[in-house]
Every structure is written in C-alpha cells, then in structure tokens.
C-alpha cells in the first residue's frame, strides 16, 4: 500500500486526546514516525502505546509531556525529535484551549492571558523551534489547527476567538517568509467537534457563554458534531507531497474541495482564496461607498 507519509517525521502537539490523537493515528497509518506531546503524562503514555501497536514498530512513535507555552519544554521536544529521527518534516500545532468564558470585564485575567500564551505563543514557539531544521532540509510542512473563532466573533469566549484569528494571520505571514525554503504553512478549520472543548462550553452554561451559543452547542452534542476523521484526512493531505505549493491558506475540512486542489492549483496557489480578508460594501453588491469618492 502506498503510504503518503512514509519516512517522514512529525511532531503533533495536543495529541493526548480528540483531534490531535486522531491525526497521530492517521499519520502512523500513512507511514510517518510520530512524536506527540500533551500536558498530561498519562495521556501521552496511553497514546504512545497505542501508536506503537498501530505501527507494529515501537521505534515509530514516542512522546513527552509538554506545555507548549514554555520555551524550554518546546526546545526539549524538538531536540528529542531531531536526535531520534534526524529532523522534523511536519509540525502540527493542535494544542489549544478555550480559555475563560464570560464577559471580558469579569473573566479571570490570568486565565485569559494563559489561553493566549497556549494558543498563540505556543504555536509560534513551536514554529521557531522547528524552522531551522526545516530550512536546513529545504522542505517542510506546518499545519495549524484553527476553528470558528478565526472567522466569526464568539462573544463571551474572547481569548479563544482572538487567539485563533491571530494565529491564522501569523500562519499566512509565516508562509510568505518561508516560501523560498519549500515550507508550506496552512491552517485547518476542522468543523464543530464533540471533544473536551464542547464539554467545557456545556459545563460553563448559558449564563457564561450566552443562550445562543449554548443552544447551538447542545444541538451539536445531540447530532454528533463533525467526524474527527475529516480533520485528520485534511491533515494528512497537507502533510503530504500532494499539497506541495498550497500555502498560506485556511481550509475547511468539511466544506472546501481540498481533494481537488491539484486540478485548480493556479487558482489555489496564485490568488487569495481561502484567506482572511476585509469585506467592503462592493463585495456585498453595494455601491454607496464608491459614490462618496
């Protein structure tokens, strides 16, 4: 069987459960050597054991507990990966938290800052740590997990929304910086997932997240949410040579026709499709702004 990630080494953060775990499993099935991290040691040990069994080769999976907002721990993780596998071909920045829920003047400030540090600084620190190795190899794939917070306001969950929008623009900017090194940088919007983040919203209740978002979350739980496999499949595509040249994009696992990107590469790679941009009146069929000039 043709394994799309054979002999590639990948770091996946936040892989102790949920989507990160599903991506790690898919990468192993596709032949990758996988290094995972999470903040909880027990989760890391459990997932590593599963991945080693799935690979049929204990040498193809390892991990360690890491707080990605800690520069020293990030450096240790990358150093271990390079020593074990000779380099880093793929980075998946999946680690993230919702942060405190409630109106901005009432939420705990330390918790708000902590969420920003994990969601933004953690992703940037991981990129800073792997880029020298990718540049030396003149290739690489960086994949950032985004979400609804990047494209829609989320009242009462401001740390998550602001951090996700920020990281998408960082990824787009980084893509321009490393293009000459054949390093592709993209973001995935995996859709509404029934993971621990959804549980946190439901536990917070409508008084903190708002009635509308709470009702929407309840409906999501009842219907099952988006399959984890959709996001994992897109993560495999973006890590493989099939996506070479696709960079600086925010791609929906559910709604965008990414399996057909190669048929439309001139449009995908050569325009600003699948990016965050400002909407002006003419984009909505209005002409009054032009009349004022």
Write the layout of secondary structure elements.
Layout: E1 9-12, H1 18-29, E2 33-38, H2 41-55, E3 61-65, H3 71-85, E4 90-93, H4 109-137, E5 140-145, H5 148-151, H6 158-178, E6 183-189, H7 196-204, H8 206-209, H9 211-223, H10 228-239, E7 249-252, H11 265-270, H12 288-291
Parallel strand pairs: 1-2, 1-4, 2-3, 4-5, 5-6, 6-7
What does this 3D model show about the protein?
The protein has 293 residues and is α/β, with parallel strands linked by helices. It has helices at 18-29, 41-55, 71-85, 109-137, 148-151, 158-178, 196-204, 206-209, 211-223, 228-239, 265-270, 288-291; strands spanning 9-12, 33-38, 61-65, 90-93, 140-145, 183-189, 249-252. The protein has a seven-stranded parallel beta sheet, sandwiched between helices. α4 (109-137) links the parallel β4 and β5. α1 runs parallel beside α2 (41-55) and α1 packs across α10 (228-239). The longest helix is centred in the middle third of the chain and has 29 residues, at 109-137. It is globular. The termini are far apart. The mean pLDDT is 92.
């Amino acid at each position: 069987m043709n394994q799309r990630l054979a002999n590639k080494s990948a770091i996946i953060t936040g892989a102790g459960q949920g989507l990160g775990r599903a991506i790690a499993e898919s990468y192993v099935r596709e032949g990758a050597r996988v290094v995972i991290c999470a903040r909880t040691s027990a989760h890391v040990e459990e997932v590593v054991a599963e991945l080693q069994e799935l690979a049929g080769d204990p040498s193809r999976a390892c991990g360690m507990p890491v707080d990605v907002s800690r520069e020293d721990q990030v450096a240790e993780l990358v150093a271990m990966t390079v020593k074990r596998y000779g380099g880093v071909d793929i980075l998946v920045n999946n680690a993230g938290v919702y942060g405190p829920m409630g109106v901005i003047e009432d939420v705990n400030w330390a918790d708000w800052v902590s969420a920003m540090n994990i969601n933004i600084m953690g992703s940037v620190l991981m990129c800073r740590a792997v880029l020298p190795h990718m540049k030396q190899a003149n290739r690489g794939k960086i994949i950032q997990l985004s979400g609804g917070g990047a494209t829609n306001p989320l009242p009462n969950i401001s740390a998550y929304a602001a951090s996700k929008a920020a990281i998408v623009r960082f990824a787009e900017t980084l893509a321009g910086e490393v293009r000459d090194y054949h390093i592709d940088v993209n973001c995935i919007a995996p859709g509404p997932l029934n993971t621990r983040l959804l549980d946190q919203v439901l536990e917070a209740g409508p008084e903190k997240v708002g009635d509308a978002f709470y009702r929407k979350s309840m409906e999501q739980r009842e219907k099952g949410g988006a399959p984890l496999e959709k996001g994992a499949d897109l993560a495999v595509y973006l890590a493989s040579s099939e996506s070479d040249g696709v960079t600086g994009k925010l791609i929906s696992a559910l709604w965008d026709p990414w399996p057909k990107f190669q048929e439309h590469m001139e449009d995908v790679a050569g325009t600003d499709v699948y990016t965050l941009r400002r909407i002006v009146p003419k984009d909505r069929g209005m002409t009054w702004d032009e009349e004022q000039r």
